[in-house]
Structure formats: C-alpha cells, structure tokens
From TrEMBL:
Keyword Electron transport recorded: yes
Cofactors (names): Cu cation
Function: Component of the cytochrome c oxidase, the last enzyme in the mitochondrial electron transport chain which drives oxidative phosphorylation. The respiratory chain contains 3 multisubunit complexes succinate dehydrogenase (complex II, CII), ubiquinol-cytochrome c oxidoreductase (cytochrome b-c1 complex, complex III, CIII) and cytochrome c oxidase (complex IV, CIV), that cooperate to transfer electrons derived from NADH and succinate to molecular oxygen, creating an electrochemical gradient over the inner membrane that drives transmembrane transport and the ATP synthase.
Cross-referenced PANTHER family: CYTOCHROME C OXIDASE SUBUNIT 2 (PTHR22888:SF9), CYTOCHROME C OXIDASE, SUBUNIT II (PTHR22888)
Organism, scientific name: Phyllonorycter platani
Stored InterPro entries: CcO_II, CcO_II-like_C, CcO_II_C, Copper_CuA, Cupredoxin, Cyt_c_oxidase_su2, Cyt_c_oxidase_su2_TM_dom, Cyt_c_oxidase_su2_TM_sf
Entry GO CC: mitochondrial inner membrane
Keywords, ordered alphabetically: Copper, Electron transport, Magnesium, Membrane, Metal-binding, Mitochondrion, Mitochondrion inner membrane, Respiratory chain, Translocase, Transmembrane, Transmembrane helix, Transport
This protein's name: Cytochrome c oxidase subunit 2
Family membership noted in the UniProt record: Belongs to the cytochrome c oxidase subunit 2 family.
Length: 226
C-alpha cells in the first residue's frame, strides 16, 4: 500500500505489475533523454552567436527531425502494445470470483466454490483496532491463494465504480448492465489494499477493497470451514 511521502509506484506483487513498472521506467528514460536533448539545443540557441544569412532551406535536417521522433514513438508503442495484450489475456484461471459494486460497498461471490457470498463494508474510524488503517480496512476481506491464476468478474448494481488494487496492477470499471473481467496472479502472502477509483457519489471515498492472500492449503481450509 502507499505510504507517506512515497512518490514512486507501489512495490509489485504480481507479474503484471512488474511489467507495468518496467514499461514506466523504460518510457521515463526516453522522456528524460528527449528533455535533456531539447533543453541543450534551446540553451545553445539562446547563448551562441552563430548567424547564417543565406540559410533558406535544409532537407537533411528536416528529414532527421521527422524520422527520429517516429523511431522514438515506435520504441514506446511496441512495449505498450505488448503490455496491453498481456493485461487482457485470461490465462486458464483456477479460481473465478465475482465483484459487484454498490453505493457504497462491494459484494463478492465465489460461485464455483460452495456459492460463498458476502458484503464488504468499510470499518468506521471509531471501531478500528490499533493496527488497522483508517478508510482502508473492511469487515470482510477477499481471501485468495497465492501462486494461482485468478479471474475476477466485475459489475455494478447502480452507478459506475472501479475495482482497483495498485500493487497487483488491477484496475477495472464496474458498469451497471455489463460484466467485465480481468485476471491477476499474487506472488506472495499479505494484505493488498485498494479503493474505488471512479467518482460514484457522496461516499465514493468509503468503499475500500482488501485482499488477504494466503497459502493454498490454508485457502482450502477456509473454504471448508466457511
């Protein structure tokens, strides 16, 4: 989860988020190179005394400053397209869960696992324990196993919501009357926090998402004991 004065991306906990961070760093390096080059050229133009009274046209420099930006865009576009296809690929999920957005809480259904279903509400500030996070803790967490391909089906019962877990690289809109799907793979056990990232009404800030990832044997015990 995000912490104070952290301007970087959150640590990745899934292969997809790792790829998103790699692409972010790759694009940032290209932007820094462009910024340095353009800044250097502008400064040199400001401060040099070079004058050419007979320069009217120059096809070669026109060709260069047309082709170089095109090549630069290709270096950004190809990894971007690869990442888009990776994010959309549903790779033989072992578990499917369904998330339904409401004003202002989430409902979850494990349809292929004993038809488990529950609502997940934010815990009010006056009921928090000392080790809980304000505005992020819920009364019913999503329990999921690690090292497992998971598909989540997302919809809404009223207005547009958005199911977002930054450290897993997951963001999918919940639209009424439409069923969206995405997938993720959790690398390690832990708690992963997220929030609705579509403006969905007065209490938009108060419908957090919490995933608790555990070992597969513990997940099977949780299913059996539910």
């Amino acid at each position: 989860m995000a912490t104070w004065s952290n301007f970087n991306l959150q640590n990745s906990n899934s292969p997809l988020m790792e790829q998103i961070i790699f692409f972010h760093d790759h694009t940032l390096i290209i932007l820094i190179m462009i910024t340095i080059l353009v800044g250097y050229l502008m400064l040199s133009l400001f401060f040099n005394k070079f004058i050419n009274r007979f320069l009217l046209e120059e096809q070669m420099i026109e060709l260069i400053w047309t082709i170089l930006p095109a090549i630069t865009l290709i270096f950004i576009a190809l990894p971007s397209l690869r990442l888009l296809y990776l994010l959309d690929d549903i790779n033989n999920p072992l578990i499917t869960i369904k998330s339904i957005g409401h004003q202002w809480y989430w409902s979850y259904e494990y349809s292929d696992l004993k038809n488990i279903s529950f609502d997940s509400y934010m815990i009010p500030s006056n009921e928090l324990n000392l080790n809980n996070f304000r505005l992020l803790e819920v009364d019913n967490r999503i329990i999921l196993p690690i090292k497992t391909q998971i598909r989540i089906m997302i919809t809404s019962s009223d207005v547009i919501h958005s199911w977002t877990i930054p450290s897993l690289g997951v963001k999918m809109d919940a639209n009424p009357g439409r069923l969206n799907q995405t997938n993720f793979f959790i690398n390690r056990p832990g708690l992963y926090y997220g929030q609705c990232s579509e403006i969905c009404g007065a209490n938009h800030s108060f419908m957090p998402i919490v995933i608790e990832s555990i070992l597969m044997k513990n997940f099977i015990e949780w299913i059996n004991n539910y």
